[in-house]
Each structure stands twice: as structure tokens, then as C-alpha cells.
Amino acid sequence: MKKTVLITGSSRGIGRATAKKFALEGYNVIINYHKSKDKALSLLEELLSSGANAIAVQADVSDRKQVEAMFEEGYKKFGNIDVLVNNAGIADMTLFTDITQEQWKRIFDVNVNGMFNCCQCVLPKMISEKAGRIINISSIWGLVGASCEAHYSATKGAIISFTKALAKELGPSNILVNAVAPGAVDTDMIAGVSEEIREIIKDETPLEIICKPEQIANVVYFLATDEAYLITGQIINASAGFVIC
Ligand SMILES: NC(=O)c1ccc[n+]([C@@H]2O[C@H](COP(=O)([O-])OP(=O)(O)OC[C@H]3O[C@@H](n4cnc5c(N)ncnc54)[C@H](OP(=O)(O)O)[C@@H]3O)[C@@H](O)[C@H]2O)c1
Q1: Are 239 and 142 in contact (CB under 8 A)?
Q2: 107 CB less than 6 Å from ligand 1?
Q3: What is the C-alpha to C-alpha distance for residues 206 and 204, in angstroms, rounded to an integer?
Q4: Residue of 16, 58, 92, 154 with fewest CB within 10 Å of its CB?
Q5: Is 104 left (phi over 0), alpha (psi -120 to 50) or beta?
Q6: CB of 81 within 8 A of CB of 4?
Q7: pLDDT tens track for 80-139
């Protein structure tokens, strides 16, 4: 039977590239989007016309009821969800003293509580099946912190410790939990970064590149393969060496 992956925030960027990679590898794909309906539907069309099985489901990951409805739809369509990729995320650059309580709450609601909601919805079945993979998208800023992104860095750090804790709890149920911590990736998230800063990032990166979403997708996919079976509770730094720690 074909395996199924659910990727949150797969209308654009890293999530979109990850959806394409899993589809190419023969997975049924549940595309999740929040606001970018047209982009999600164009991806759905692309996957279906390539012969893959896929559906697109609108849900704000921070909203528990919407997340429950999304998983219900996914199970109804494909029967099982073998891999969950918690990718949906928002970023923001604000001086710490200017961060409002609303900004702080919203970034945690999406980046951390969204992951919590999705994990709680997928795990009962994974535990009863004694199989599953959860791959969370963190960031190098979760490892080392970024100036003017204290709120974002805090969410990405929370993802890291959550990943390690959950991997310990779920190992006996044969469920592997890992995170990928990308460096700068060429998506809408860094669209506001000037050409000058992009050059500085490249200069400070040993591989002298800005990563492509497809390259992150390859790392995410690897963690779902049989070859990665011994890897759990790990944070895979996929930053082309931009951060080495
Ligand atoms: N790009 C980077 O340099 C970089 C570096 C390190 C880590 N990351 C992490 O990688 C992940 C993906 O980032 P990206 O660069 O691909 O960002 P992106 O291009 O801005 O795409 C973000 C995706 O998340 C979705 N999303 C946002 N809020 C959502 C919500 N409340 N519910 C459901 N989906 C939601 C968006 O969906 P809609 O458009 O449909 O609303 C979109 O598909 C994020 O967790 C980010 O923190 C990115």
C-alpha cells in the first residue's frame, strides 16, 4: 500500500518542494495551506497530473478544530498518515523591546502550537500502528539565536527540545521524531532580504550558497526513508555550513 504524508504549510516554499519530493517518491500527499489557496490548488493540479494521489486541505494549524478536520479528511481519503512534516511557520524581524504581546502569541500559536495540534491528531493512529515518522522544521536560529528575532528563535528552540523529548517518548512505539534546522533558504520568507545581505550570507557560508527549498526537501525526505531508521531525536542542521555548532 502507498504511504501517505501530510505536510503543513505546503502551498509555498519548503513545504511545497517537500510535497513535490514525496509525490515523486510515490507517496500520497496531503497538502495543507492557510491563505494561499490558488498556490495550493496549482500544486494539487501539478501532483495529480504527474500521476500522484493528493488532496489539498485548508487549515490554520493554530486552530485545533481546523486541524482535527484536516486530519479527519486525510484519514478518510487515504486511510493512514505515515509521515507528518510540521513545516508551517511564520517569521518576523522586530527589536525585542518592540515585540507586542500579540506578535509573541501569534508566532508561538503557529510555529509551536500548530506542531502540538498536528502531533496530537496524528499520534493515536501512529501509536496503534506502531509506526510513523514526524519531521519538524526548526531553524539554525533555534540552535544559536538571531538578533531581532528573539520570538522566532524561541519558537524554533522550542521545536528542538520538543523533538528530542517526543523522540524519547515515542521510540518504544517505533515512531521516529526528528527536526531539520535550515539556514537561509530561498523562499518568500527571505524575500525581503536585500541583495547585499544575501551576498554577505553567501560569503559567510562555507558552501557559498543560499539553500534551495528542494535541497531542504531532500533532507526531510531522507528522514522518512528506511535508510534513516537509526536516526531519532536529532536536529539535522541543513545550512550548507552557515552555522556549525
Ligand atoms: N526560508 C528560510 O530561510 C527558512 C530558514 C529556516 C527555517 N525555515 C522554516 O521553514 C518553514 C517553511 O518556511 P518557508 O521559507 O517555506 O516559508 P514561506 O515560503 O513563507 O511559506 C510558509 C508556509 O507556511 C504556511 N503557513 C503559515 N502560517 C500558517 C498557518 N497558520 N497554518 C497553516 N499554514 C501556514 C504558508 O501557507 P499559506 O501561504 O497558505 O498561508 C506557507 O505555505 C518554516 O517553519 C520556517 O520557519 C525557513
Answers
A1: no
A2: no
A3: 6
A4: 92
A5: alpha
A6: yes
A7: 999 999 999 999 999 999 999 999 999 999 999 999 999 999 999 999 999 999 999 999
Distance 128 CA to ligand 1 centre (A): 30
Query: Which residues are the active-site residues?
Result: 152
Set of cell numbers at residue 68: 482535527
- Measure 200 CA to ligand 1 centroid, in angstroms: 23
Question: What grid cell was written down for 8?
Answer: 503543513
pLDDT given for residue 30 in this prediction: 99
pLDDT in tens, 235-245: 999 999 999 99
> How far, in Å, is the centroid of ligand 1 from the Cα of 74?
21
Taking the mean position of all CA atoms in its chain, how far away is CA 91? 13
Degrees, nearest 5: CA angle 7-5-189: 20
| CB-based burial label for 121 (10 Å; 0-12, 13-18, 19+) | buried
Sorted by where each starts, the structural domains of the chain and their CATH numbers stand as: 4-238 (3.40.50.720)
pLDDT < 50 regions, the chain: none
CB atoms within 10 A of CB 99: 17
